[in-house]
Design goal:
Strand 1 and strand 2 form a beta hairpin. The mean pLDDT is 83. The chain has a three-stranded antiparallel beta sheet with strand order 1-2-3, with no helix packed on it. It has one domain: Intergrase catalytic core (hpI Integrase, Chain A, Orthogonal Bundle). By secondary structure, the chain is mainly α. Helix 1 packs antiparallel against helix 3 and helix 5 runs antiparallel to helix 6.
Length: 193
């Protein structure tokens, strides 16, 4: 369960797809670097380009702890320690089902009805994009994290607005005209000029 939690944190902060996660070896991670990151070989990306994505500090810590747990397990079994060529994540073939059950357990499933959205592994990727949008990260940075060749794909598929976004974002955004800045009603002179 802890390894799955690390996987979810990893995907929520890197937007990796399931196949991309499954392709990662420990050697692809720069955990002890001044700029921790993950390198994804273009052979495993959808667009065919290599990618280097920064890692969040808590994700680095959780990955180091996960490797230490695996090393301890190997030692108890009398096996060699985890090698850099070993896979980081072990994704079962039923990962979509597991994600749905975990989301349901956490109370994160959508309400039933016609507009109900499917919960699967890819939702973690979409959540990463949504978090970055809410943090007001520049759209070109989000595009690079998602590894899209076209910004329209990033914003159209992953940048959709939620129900309350318009009313949360827009009110109070525009500068107040001087005649309203004091809180008084505009006079007829103000209206004419």
């Amino acid at each position: 369960m802890r390894d799955r939690q690390v996987l979810y944190w990893f995907v929520l902060t890197t937007a990796f797809r399931a196949g991309e996660c499954a392709s990662l070896c420990w050697d692809d991670l720069r955990l002890d670097s001044a700029r921790p990151s993950v390198r994804l070989d273009g052979r495993f990306t959808k667009n065919g380009d290599d990618a280097v994505i920064p890692l969040q500090g808590f994700v680095v810590d959780s990955l180091l702890q996960m490797r230490a747990r695996r090393d301890a397990l190997h030692a108890r079994r009398g096996d060699d320690p985890v090698r850099d060529a070993d896979r980081v994540f072990r994704l079962p073939s039923k990962i979509a089902t597991i994600v749905r059950k975990d989301a349901e357990t956490a109370g994160l499933t959508a309400e039933r009805g016609a507009g109900r959205k499917r919960v699967d592994f890819h939702c973690l990727r979409k959540s990463c994009a949504r978090i970055l949008i809410e943090l007001k990260v520049h759209p070109k940075v989000i595009q690079q994290v998602l590894r899209h060749s076209d910004i329209r794909l990033t914003m159209d598929l992953y940048g959709e607005l939620g129900d309350g976004d318009l009313f949360r974002e827009l009110p109070g955004t525009f500068p107040v005209p001087r005649m309203f800045a004091t809180g008084g009603e505009p006079t007829s002179t103000d209206r004419a000029g």
